[in-house]
Amino acid sequence: MSKETIELEKDHTHDKDFIASKQLIESMNIVDIAAALELMNKVTAIETFRMMPKNKAADVFAYLSREMQQHIVESITNPEIKSIINDLFVDDAVDFIEEMPASVVKRVLANAAKSQRELINQLLKYPRDSVGSIMTVEFVDLKASHTVAQAFDYIRKTGVDKETIYTCYVIDSSRKLLGIVSARALLLAEQTQKVSEIMKTSVISANTMDDKETLAPKFSKYDLLAMPVVDNEQRLVGIVTVDDAFDVQEQEATEDFEIMAAMSPSEEPYLKTSIRKLAKNRVFWLLLLMLSATFSGAVISSFEDALTALPVLVAFIPMLMNTGGCAGSQSAVLIIRGMALSEIKISDILAVWWKEIRIAVLCGAALVVVNFLRILIMNNDIIVALTVSLSLYVTVIMAKTVGSLLPMAAKQFRMDPAIMAAPVITTAVDAISLIIYFNLAKIIMGF
Amino acid sequence: MSKETIELEKDHTHDKDFIASKQLIESMNIVDIAAALELMNKVTAIETFRMMPKNKAADVFAYLSREMQQHIVESITNPEIKSIINDLFVDDAVDFIEEMPASVVKRVLANAAKSQRELINQLLKYPRDSVGSIMTVEFVDLKASHTVAQAFDYIRKTGVDKETIYTCYVIDSSRKLLGIVSARALLLAEQTQKVSEIMKTSVISANTMDDKETLAPKFSKYDLLAMPVVDNEQRLVGIVTVDDAFDVQEQEATEDFEIMAAMSPSEEPYLKTSIRKLAKNRVFWLLLLMLSATFSGAVISSFEDALTALPVLVAFIPMLMNTGGCAGSQSAVLIIRGMALSEIKISDILAVWWKEIRIAVLCGAALVVVNFLRILIMNNDIIVALTVSLSLYVTVIMAKTVGSLLPMAAKQFRMDPAIMAAPVITTAVDAISLIIYFNLAKIIMGF
Predict the structure, then answer these.
(1) Are B48 and B56 in contact (CB under 8 A)?
(2) Edge-to-edge strands of the sheet including A226-230?
(3) What is the pLDDT of residue B447?
(4) How far apart are CA A327 and CA A371, in angstroms?
(5) What is the pLDDT of residue B365?
(6) How far apart (Å, rounded) are the C-alpha atoms in residues B355 and B90?
(7) What is the pLDDT of residue B122?
(8) Of A61-65, B13-17, B81-85, the least confident
(9) What burial class does residue B333 get, using C-beta atoms within 10 Å of its C-beta: 0-12 exposed, 13-18 middle, 19+ buried?
(10) Are B334 and A264 in contact (CB under 8 A)?
């Protein structure tokens, strides 16, 4: 919490400090104002919110939590709602409306200007994870026949309502995208040049129905500030700005971390998520993994005779399982991340597998040597050392195979590869490594 | 001081001896030339320095005192600086730049070739992972007294060499940052307005020494296109643009994925990394985890009598270990990620732990019920079912405690919290859960 935030909160508890608060608000960043409002009691928050100038209020509103947004909308008058919803960028309005209960949505849409309402309804139609669902429709569109001077006039006239003016889009009469012009190119060009002369026609664009996960790799590769979004007829319908792509990237990474640790992904920050929700997100996978460990248990039970005859074998089970699980998840994680960043494709599957096999042979050799010596020193039993080490080698190679192939198979079957991370790999590797271990023990030790 | 040095100093005081001096310099050792320059008056030193062949000049420069270096840089032309800075060894350039005032640093970096500058930025006084190591120095700096029209003239004139012109930085005569002006604000303002009237003074900035990991959360929170970077005296020394922050975010996430899967992080894409390198990145952690599994093995060995007496207990070891490991890594991953996104702070440690305990109680209850019924049905042994289920409950609570506290402890001790992910948690949880299991079995079953 910044010093200003504390001050704002404190000040506002006294009405005589109203003017001071107002000045403070004027000097503060909208994101920080939003954070300060979240910390106030609800009555004070509403009072403070109403005190803000109209256009600032809408900006701040976009950064509030869903709860606070709902509370504000339920507390203010229809004209106030109207002013906020019409001042919001359409993509922010859509984000907000998507989370609200039906009664609030109805009241908000009823107060939106017709054009704004139409845009909102249009964006609400795109699927949850599509590019369409996060694009904005407030962009600057230029005509190819415009001169640079005309373009600037147009930007000055309409720019204030646009989400970005730094990339302008040149379209023809049927709204097909012809090219893009950066504000930089406009600024550095002669006033009399035509837009068509300075526009770039090789444009990186997205389709409304593309998965929003595909945006970040493109933004990153081409260092874009915004990307045009076209429909199936190549008509320009919106743009995605870099800040939204940035947020998507952060969310997607968080989601992958969560899925890879066997949790249902959640968009709320940890400290704001309820115990019930967190428990619910975790318990399903825990149950599944607990039950699938029954396989490993069954493998052990079926070799009970061997274990009774040679109980020393039991002591190496955790080492085999952990090393195998870790070897497998190393491969899985690199491949899952590589696919998420579009660095690895399904068609690379054989190259990846062959690479992992050779890594397994190298890593396995080091592990086996150390392991063999350790057992020899600590247990002084060359047969046990041999059995365990050989099992370990085969386990590492098997684990890297499983770890590399499962995520790619998941992708092939249109599942999220992140599901095939540590927990699943561990369960699979556990059972297989135990089978390898006991069978090798049987062969080598002959019981 | 050598005889030659004295001679050089003496010789150069006479212009007619210019050619002799040049020959002398050619024959002298660079360290001696540097020592000689230090002894000359400043005007003569500059003349002598300029007389030297280009590559020799750079070599000599590296041996000069900081004062003399500054004096030289302030006295020569940009092309001369360029030739020196590009010829300098990077570590020498860094040593030099580290000591210079911001104005000199800016001029030197602006004249370095791109590749040289990247290396310098990376090595400069700024540690490898600091904001300073990734910032750029090509930004537009405006004066508060400029009119909008003057600002545009300035941008048109200098903008072509700047990394971004969309955010301009307003500085005072000592290069202290006064505010920022977006190109958007300039475009929408009247030509006669002053920059000081339209600049924003509440600026989100970074310090050169901040960890570059801290950039992405700020870019994301405040939706920035660029962020100014200041030194300890609040002087503007560079900026970070959103594309670089984007790349850092992607790299940091990838690094966290790798560390959390027990690998040394690598910046190269998977398919372009050699087998040897990949194996090297993985083998250390595999070895460490393999050896630490010895603890779990030792626990099992110490209860060998119990296991021989009741071999059915062995079959539940994988279930207990996997469920515990998974429960612990769920907590660890959420907390590691929360800290990476600055959502969770060290001071939240008690709140986090208390949250995790309650989640463990909830999740554990569900697991225990299912587990108890499964064992009852499959093994038809209520004592075993009770022992295993109770062990499972205690293990889950213990695992969530370990999983939440270890990453925060790592952060407290300035280690990367990501190290405390699945593999480490698994190893710790394994050994503790086995101790819980066997001791509970001993108490309940009484052997």
Answers:
(1) no
(2) A206-207, A226-230, A236-241
(3) 65
(4) 15
(5) 95
(6) 50
(7) 63
(8) B13-17
(9) buried
(10) no
Mean pLDDT of chain A: 87
Strand boundaries in A218-284, DSSP class E = 226-230, 236-241
- In this complex, the residue of A156, A329, A355 whose CB is nearest that of residue B275 is A355
DSSP A289-307: HHHHHHHHHHHHHHTHHHH
**Residue A327's pLDDT is what?**
92
DSSP tag of A269: -
pLDDT digits (tens, 9 = 90+) for A173-211: 888 999 999 998 998 899 999 999 999 887 889 999 999
CA distances from B308 to A181, A246, B300, B382 (A): 78, 58, 11, 20
Min Cα distance B133 → chain A (Å) is 19
Across the interface, whether the CB atoms of B165 and A184 are under 8 A apart is answered: yes
Please tell me the distance from the alpha carbon of residue A303 to that of residue B312, in angstroms, as a whole number: 11
Interface of B with A in 149-208 (CB under 8 A): 152, 155-156, 159-160, 165-166, 183-184, 187-188, 201-202, 204
Contacts of residue A81, Cβ cutoff 8 Å, sequence gap at least 6: A73, A107, A108, A111
> CA B59 → CA A285, B33, B42, B92, distances in Å?
63, 10, 19, 9
How many residues comprise chain B? 447
**What contacts 24+ positions apart, CB below 8 Å, involve B219-223?**
B219/A243, B219/A246, B219/B245, B219/B246, B219/B249, B220/A243, B220/A246, B220/A247, B220/A250, B220/B249, B221/A31, B222/A29, B222/A31, B223/A31, B223/A243
Any CB–CB contact under 8 A between A373 and chain B?
no
Query: Among residues of chain A, what percentage have pLDDT more than 70?
Result: 95
Question: Is the distance from CB of A237 to CB of A135 less than 8 angstroms?
Answer: yes
Radius of gyration of chain B (CA): 32
Contact between chains at B370 and A343 (C-beta distance less than 8 A): no
- Greater confidence, B270 or A2? B270
- Rounded Cα distance, B281 and A224, in Å: 33
Yes or no, beta carbons of A326 and B285 under 8 Å apart: yes
**Amino acid in the structure at residue A179:** G
Query: Please, which pLDDT band fits residue B376 given cuts at 50, 70 and 90?
Result: very high
The residue-averaged pLDDT of A376-388 equals 91
CA-CA distance, A160 to B200, in Å (whole number)? 16
What are residue B45's phi and psi, to 5 degrees? -60, -45
Which helix (H) or strand (E) element contains residue B227? strand B226-230
Mean pLDDT of B389-410: 94
DSSP class of B142? E
Phi and psi torsions of A52, nearest 5° = -75, 150
Phi/psi at B310 (5° precision): -135, 75
CB contact under 8 A, A242 and B246: yes
Indicate the range of A65-69, B69-73, B267-271, B345-349 predicted with least confidence. Answer: B267-271
A381, two tokens? 């039993």
Start-to-end CA distance of chain B, whole Å, equals 87
Q: Which of A132, A128, A156, A123 is nearest to A142 (CA)?
A: A156
Chain B, 411-440: which have a CB under 8 Å from a chain A CB?
422-423, 426-427, 430, 434
Distance, CA of B195 to CA of B140 (rounded, Å): 13
Other C-beta atoms closer than 10 Å to the C-beta of A187 total 19
Give mean pLDDT, residues A300-328.
87
DSSP A390-423: HHHHHHHHHHHHHHHHHHHHHHHTTS-GGGGSHH
